[in-house]
């Protein structure tokens, strides 16, 4: 009997495997098992070097489903993400994402379907790397701004955001999923509905607040 496994990578104290499991269940998945790498950076640590990554390949069997929040959970850059997805498909594992609801299945032998699938994998992996690089650039810019000028330590920055950048990105991406509502996002991230609604209403202002605080 096939099983559905959630792989969660969490890099900060504000992210938890439990949050990602709640996100998966809110998106309609029934999770049989959770495998999590805690405190692991997705930007600097390749998938194969993460403590629990080997367990993912050891535990999953042909016909099993691996659920991830998004493809960025499966590698640190384009090459890493695509190699990981292809290795899982070669093992007969179906990979599904919570955000956007993509499915990557290696079972098809139709050349056109394979071409469409492989193109989508390449596009999503490239998007994941671009987003990671943009996030790093935004963090650097925010920190530089917060440190600049003689009054940097006393300049009014408004109320400190109740979320970090990783949580902000999670909310922003979950808002793109048509089947996930504000209450579900709030439960998954641990934020209030009002905070999620503020991010939804003005994501630019929310990101600017993070920048002002150097987050």
UniProtKB/TrEMBL annotation:
Family of this protein: Belongs to the site-specific recombinase resolvase family.
Annotated active site: 11 (o-(5'-phospho-dna)-serine intermediate)
Keyword Oxidoreductase applies: no
GO MF annotation terms: DNA binding; DNA strand exchange activity
Domain of life per record: Bacteria
Pfam families, per database record: HTH_7 (PF02796), Resolvase (PF00239)
Keywords: DNA integration, DNA recombination, DNA-binding
InterPro entries: Recombinase_CS, Resolv_N, Resolvase-like_N_sf, Resolvase_HTH_dom, SSR_resolvase
PANTHER family: DNA-INVERTASE FROM LAMBDOID PROPHAGE (PTHR30461), RESOLVASE HOMOLOG YNEB (PTHR30461:SF26)
DNA-binding as UniProt keyword: yes
Residue ranges annotated for the Resolvase/invertase-type recombinase catalytic domain, each copy included: 3-150
Name of the protein in question: Resolvase domain-containing protein
GO BP: DNA integration
């Amino acid at each position: 009997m096939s099983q559905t496994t959630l792989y969660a990578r969490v890099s900060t104290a504000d992210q938890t495997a439990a949050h990602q499991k709640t996100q998966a269940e809110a998106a309609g998945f029934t999770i049989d098992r959770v495998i999590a790498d805690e405190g692991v950076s997705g930007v600097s640590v390749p998938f194969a070097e993460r403590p629990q990554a080997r367990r993912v390949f050891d535990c999953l069997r042909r016909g099993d489903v691996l659920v991830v929040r998004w493809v960025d959970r499966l590698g640190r850059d384009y090459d890493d993400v695509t190699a990981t997805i292809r290795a899982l498909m070669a093992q007969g594992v179906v990979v599904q994402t919570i955000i956007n609801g993509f499915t990557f299945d290696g079972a098809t032998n139709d050349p056109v379907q394979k071409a469409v699938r492989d193109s989508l994998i390449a596009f999503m992996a490239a998007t994941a790397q671009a987003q990671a690089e943009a996030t790093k650039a935004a963090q650097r810019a925010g920190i530089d701004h917060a440190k600049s000028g003689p009054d940097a330590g006393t300049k009014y920055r408004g109320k400190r955001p109740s979320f970090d950048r990783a949580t902000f990105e999670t909310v922003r991406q979950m808002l793109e999923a048509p089947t996930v509502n504000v209450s579900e996002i709030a439960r998954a991230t641990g934020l209030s509905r009002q905070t999620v609604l503020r991010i939804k209403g003005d994501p630019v202002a929310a990101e600017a607040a993070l920048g002002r605080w150097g987050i």
